[in-house]
Amino acid sequence: MDIGSYNPEEFYDEMFEAPGRPWPAASLLAQRLANLPQEELLARQRAAETAMVRMGITFNVYSDNQGVEKTFPFDIIPRIVSAAEWTHIDAGLKQRITALNLFIDDIYHDQKILKDKVIPREIVESSKCLRPQCMGLNPPRGVWIHITGTDLVRNSDGVVYVLEDNLRCPSGVSYVLENRHLMKTVFPRVFESARIRPVDTYPYELRETLEYLAPDSVAEPRCVVLTPGSFNSAYFEHSFLAQQMGAELVEGSDLVVFDDRLWMRTTDGFERVDVVYRRIDDDFLDPEAFRKDSMLGVPGLMRVYKAGNVALANAPGAGIADDKVVYAYVPRIIKYYLDQDPIIPNVPTHICSEEKELKHVLANMDKLVVKAANESGGYGMIVGPAASAKEREEFAAKVKADPRNFIAQPTLSLSRVPTICDGELEGRHVDLRPYILYGDDVYVMPGGLTRVALRKGSLVVNSSQGGGSKDTWVASEDTPSC
Amino acid sequence: MLSRVANSIYWMSRYAERAENVARFVAVNLELMLDSDVGVEQQWLPLVDTSGDHKDFLKRYGQADEQNVVRFLAFDRENPNSIFSCLQASRENARTVREIISSATWNQLNEFYLYVRDHADKPDSIESLSRLLDQIRRGTNTYMGLMDSTMTRDQPWQFALLGRMLERADKTSRILDVKYFLLLKSATQVGTPVDHIQWGAVLRSASAWEMYRKKHGGISPEDIVEFLLLDPDFPRSVRFCLNAALESLRAISGTPPGLVRNEAERALGRICSALTFTSASEIISQGLHEYLDDLQTRVNQAGEAIYDTFFALKAPGNPETKARPGSPALGQFQD
Fold it and tell me: If we measure between CA atoms, which residue out of B25, B31, B20, B12 comes closest to residue B139?
């Protein structure tokens, strides 16, 4: 294994501009890697993996009802982002979040954007993520999407695109923080000399964001993290964030509504709760308002919310802007509310509910990625070029049966980062999920979760589908220092 | 703190303590077998009684030889009180409260559990089994030490101590019960070397051998009963453990000296008072087994009072606001 002989092949590589020639921001790291004996690098990789097991940094796999814990594979070669590029991404994400928040608020109030026919009314009204229960709702401080994890990808053209807006319960930020913690023990010297922007303040920023939502009358708001429970795949993260914020981690059964307030059961009796960072989907939040069979939520929670006696993050109903069909309209949404062109472009998207587009999609299944509108975690999608003819046929039937529920995009050639695979350095495809907090103002975490498809040639980076993660280093300035 | 969390911490702690005790019982018995000419069945079956379900054992294993009992008590995943099952339950409870306990505590418990899980089926010789049992005892003690040195003395720590002390009291009383019963049956051997070895094993099972010798010197059944049940200073005597548990309860509720705030304190306080004002000779003359049986029942009742007072909070009036089942804390009393 030799970083000098690493070959980026025909892909855009995040570390190397050309064979043997790193991007300026990555030159220091490339140099350090070149000076590190192979055994040493592998030993550090192993040490990082052991540490993850020891600390129990795990996720549970849904399909397994035993709740088997797996560690999220971690690769110690970081992805590096130059300061100039980050400035661009930061501005683009702030613009996008601001516009999406205005869009959600409009949908649940005057629906100007529908009246002006910028988006077809039936697209919004047929969305599974629209919550009629939220019409006329005024969330505290007018913010609907407090926590967002936007997925970015870079194509072979070198351009960074927004692939998905995750506005409901985006997960993964705990891995960013733990990965960084591990990297400091793996590459302490590199950290010493490189100027990498810190991500560690995220829990502090998150707490500020949540406290900002508390009712005015509350001097010291009590914030809690609401989890579905220890068998949920992201339980580690719920627990980690609660711990890092100094908030209570609660399950639905810990909470109860009476006297128009939300309370939690404690060893000293009932204590009032002011802000809930909920990691439970809208559907399960309150059996009185949403799904009646939910055992995870709190009966009466929406009543207390509407009365302004508790804040929820993210606001129920925010998922309407997260619908993969609505996604196709986001450039127009930005233009409509902000009168600006999008700073970060969308991936070109075919909307299957439009007849011409549907024909095109069905005729080109072998070239496209087709996705269901409301699935996540790499489920409900097909990567045309990688699928068999039979799989494509089956998926085409689903699309024909319910075109509204599907979009299609060209198969992108995702950029790659050198990754340790079987003791060798090979390029593997990555995406990037930065986390954005919307409170008093908009905060974009400098970095984010770089997810990597560990299987050779694979484009699927989801943790449930054989993906791993990397640390993301954002250079604080663009002298060749990182 | 949250009632559910308090419950999980309590059981995390109880199960870790239980695992350590069972490991000690098995280790002491393995050593005893090397010295003893008592029948094998007579040596191993009582151990099943201290730590598990007698009927379940006989049904699934039949004969109480060393191999069967060790497998049942140490590594049997179907026995909820095997060392492995206890560690698993302890760790699973810890996983649901890891944001409350210190990271050092969690890391130790997690790493140690994973180690035992990976080695549980491997020991094939008495040497490797002894080594593993020793590591299990060290592992649990390291976890307790880390908890004591990294956690603030507030409610989470107090609930952990409460669980640990109630479990320890239960285990000491059980080891005394089964062994005393066994020894009385071989009354002809009183005063013989076999008898001394047997009593030594009882004391070692409660880590009490050295401290007993310091205080009482010679071996006498009455002194041993006195030491394991009533000694005010030895950290595994039943009285010491229950006093410590009562202190934790009072710290949790902030109850001033001389007052009683809830049913849990009342139930435990009664037992502690009784232990303070009785003597070993009195207990023996009324029947040790009957006394211990009654004691265990009352300690379990105190456990139920703790559950009602702290873990199963009911909302005022409205029937809809009754406690609903959440993630169940993994825990059970041993019958």
Answer: B20
| Distance from C-alpha of B12 to C-alpha of B112, rounded to nearest angstrom | 14
What is the reported pLDDT for A66? Answer: 43
Q: What is the pTM of this model?
A: 0.83
> What is the rounded (10 degree) CA torsion for B230, B231, B236, B238?
20
Residue A20's φ and ψ, nearest 5 degrees, are 75, 0
Distance of CA A349 to the CA centre of its chain: 20
Question: What are the tokens at A292?
Answer: 């009646």
Task: Give the type of residue at B107.
Answer: N
β-strand pairing of A275-278 with A311-313: parallel
Contact A235, A227 (CB under 8 A): yes
Q: What are A218's two structure tokens?
A: 């509350």
User: What is the torsional sign of CA B106, B111, B116, B118?
Assistant: positive
Give pLDDT, residue A128.
Answer: 87
Contact A252/A295 with Cβ under 8 angstroms?
A: yes
Mutation for B interface: A265, A273, A280, most B CBs within 10 A:
A265
- CA of B157: how far to CAs of A140, B35, B242, in Å? 37, 41, 16
Distance from the Cα of A2 to chain B's closest Cα (Å) equals 34
Q: Closest partner residue to B323 among A249, A253, A263, by Cβ?
A: A253
Contact list in A for residue B110 (CB cut-off 8 A) is: 54-56
Q: What 3-state class would DSSP assign to A286?
A: coil
Q: Which of B196, B202, B224 is nearest to B212 (CA)?
A: B224
Distance from CA of B299 to the nearest CA of A (A): 21
Q: What is the CA radius of gyration of chain A?
A: 23
In chain A, which residues touch B (CB < 8 A)?
53-56, 229-231, 235, 239-240, 242-243, 248-254, 256-258, 263-267, 269-270, 295, 299
Q: Which of A427, A353, A354, A414 minimizes the C-alpha distance to A385?
A: A414
Q: In this structure, are residues A279 and A210 in contact, taking their beta carbons and an 8 Å threshold? A: no
pLDDT at position B325 is: 43
Nearest one of B135, B115, B144 to B23, comparing CA atoms: B135
Task: Give the torsion through C-alpha atoms of A161, A164, A168, A173, to 10 deg.
Answer: -60
SS3 content of chain B, % helix, strand, coil (to 5): 75, 0, 25
Contact by Cβ (8 Å): B242, B275: yes
Radius of gyration over every alpha carbon of chain B, rounded to an integer in angstroms = 20
Q: How far from A292 is each of A137, A232, A284, B275, CA to CA, in Å?
A: 21, 20, 8, 53
CA distance B109 to A243: 18
CA–CA distance, A363 with A385 (Å, rounded to integer): 13
Which parts of chain B have pLDDT scores under 70? 36-40, 52, 122-124, 181-194, 315-335
Q: What is the DSSP letter of A9?
A: T
In angstroms, the CA A282 to CA B145 distance is 43
Reduce the DSSP state of residue A450 to 3 states and report it.
Answer: strand
According to the model, what pLDDT value does residue A245 have? 93
Q: Do B4 and A230 touch (CB under 8 A)?
A: no
